């Protein structure tokens, strides 16, 4: 597996008011994708926002990008504005994208093609995968342990974003995503590049034997995804990497961030480690406007 040696694009976050937190907003990007000038992408972390999900013990504010009962809508909207502004800024004051589409995620293998119409209509869509080839349209996936997976077609300039928890992984969400890009845009797997973002690692993802049985019933290599010992653990990253390779991607074009959200709650949100009292990160990808 190729290492995702992410770079961090940091920007000073302005104060909302004198009482607001001030910190550095950090975006994780794939250095190997830097030559693709048409491609906008990034994974958020938890630093640099105005939310107070972690309580007073954490310095600065949290960059919670999900509407949950742990935060106010006003804080989330401000956090999103800061994150997206930093993500798409060219440094010259020109923004390269015009709007974002997100999903009501449900741990499915449902992939939707979207475009400017969904932005204009503020469409409320269910599913766990988004694809587009329209410049200016950002695709956003929210996570707090599940894997965010971004895919780009270097030849046809099309992109996809996918939410892969264990249920979505079992259902083959990224394989469905690759198929959807082929069907909708004529994408060939050998032209695709993929990045697996921060999520819960095998070190922390204990599961029951029934989960292993479900994977065994579907994937011949399933036993390679589980480690034994006192507790059974699932390697979600390897499970999705294998699906991407099965779908036809080259091993050298699949990058993964070696960071466990459950181990690193100082940097990421983790639903499991924080017992549900947490926020949401966002992985975003899009085709830049010319």
What is the helix/strand order? EEEEEEHEEHEEEEHHEEHEEHEE
Provide the CATH superfamily.
CNF1/YfiH-like putative cysteine hydrolases
DSSP helix fraction: 10-25%
Radius of gyration: 18 Å
Q: Largest beta sheet, briefly?
A: 7 strands, mixed
CATH class: Alpha Beta
Strand tally: 18
Number of helices: 6
Strand content: 25-35%
Unreliable stretches (pLDDT < 50, length at least 5) are 2-23
Spatial arrangement of strands, main beta sheet: 1-17-13-11-12-9-8
**Integer average pLDDT:** 89
Provide the CATH architecture. Answer: 4-Layer Sandwich
Might you state the CATH topology name? CNF1/YfiH-like putative cysteine hydrolases
Distance between the termini: 33 Å
Compute the number of structural domains.
Answer: 1
Query: Which class best fits the helix and strand makeup?
Result: alpha+beta
Summarize the structure.
The protein is an alpha+beta fold. Helices cover 20% and strands 27% of the residues. The two termini are 33 Å apart.
Description:
- The protein has 290 residues and is α+β, with helices and mostly antiparallel strands.
- The chain has one domain: CNF1/YfiH-like putative cysteine hydrolases.
- It contains six helices and 18 strands.
- It has a seven-stranded mixed β-sheet with strand order 1-17-13-11-12-9-8. A six-stranded mixed β-sheet has the order 2-3-4-18-10-7. Strands 14-16-15 form a three-stranded antiparallel β-sheet.
- A hairpin with a 4-residue loop joins β15 and β16.
């Amino acid at each position: 597996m190729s290492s995702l040696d992410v770079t961090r694009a940091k920007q000073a976050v302005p104060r909302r008011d004198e009482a607001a937190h001030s910190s550095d907003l950090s975006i994780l990007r794939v250095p190997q994708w830097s030559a693709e000038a048409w491609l906008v992408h990034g994974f958020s972390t938890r630093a640099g926002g105005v939310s107070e999900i972690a309580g007073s013990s954490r310095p600065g504010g949290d960059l919670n990008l999900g509407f949950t009962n742990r935060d106010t809508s006003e804080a989330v909207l401000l956090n999103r504005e800061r994150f997206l502004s930093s993500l798409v800024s060219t440094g010259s004051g020109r923004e390269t994208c015009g709007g974002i589409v997100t999903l009501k995620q449900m741990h499915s293998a449902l992939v939707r093609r979207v475009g400017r119409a969904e932005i204009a209509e503020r469409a409320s869509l269910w599913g766990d995968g988004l694809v587009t080839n329209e410049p200016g349209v950002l695709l956003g996936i929210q996570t707090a342990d599940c894997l965010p997976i971004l895919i780009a077609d270097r030849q046809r300039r099309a992109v996809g974003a996918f939410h892969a928890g264990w249920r979505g992984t079992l259902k083959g969400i990224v394989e469905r995503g690759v198929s959807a890009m082929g069907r909708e845009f004529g994408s060939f797997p050998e032209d695709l590049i993929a990045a697996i973002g921060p999520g819960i690692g095998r070190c922390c993802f204990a599961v029951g034997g029934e989960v292993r049985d479900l994977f065994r019933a579907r994937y011949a290599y399933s036993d390679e995804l589980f480690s034994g010992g006192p507790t059974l653990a699932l390697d979600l990253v390897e499970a999705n990497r294998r699906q991407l390779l099965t779908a036809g991607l080259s091993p050298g074009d699949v990058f993964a961030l070696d960071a466990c959200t459950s181990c690193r709650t100082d940097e990421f949100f983790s639903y499991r480690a924080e017992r549900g009292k947490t926020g949401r990160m966002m992985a975003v990808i899009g085709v830049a406007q010319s």
